[in-house]
Write a structure and sequence with these properties.
- The protein has five helices and two strands; from the N terminus they run H-H-E-E-H-H-H.
- By secondary structure, it is mainly alpha-helical.
- The protein folds into two domains: 32 residues; 82 residues.
- A two-stranded antiparallel ribbon has the order 1-2.
- The relative contact order is 0.04.
Amino acid sequence: MCWCVLCELVWVLRRVYGFAGADCLSAIEALMASKTVVADGVIALGARLPDGLVAELDAAAAQLSRCRADIIRQAIEYYLDDIEDLRCGVAALKDPADPVLNWAEVRVAEGFSRSE
């Protein structure tokens, strides 16, 4: 957790909610021990990324006027769609009932010439 966020959290816990020092510490320890946060069907995840990748992410986010989370979410959705397409392709290749076609024979059968 970033130091400035931690300071802000302590300030909010003490000033707004009236927590004492020990209560603040317990609340922060519980928060930091938490691996995921669930709210309205959304789970917050954390990831460690190399500096170069973060720089590219920030550039893409700025160019698209979107936040990092939106870019990451969309990238994961695209990746998972691609993985599903690959799984279907591999399943078709492994299916013995699915014939393997010779491209040259298909071209001849469909009337395509070599120059096309």
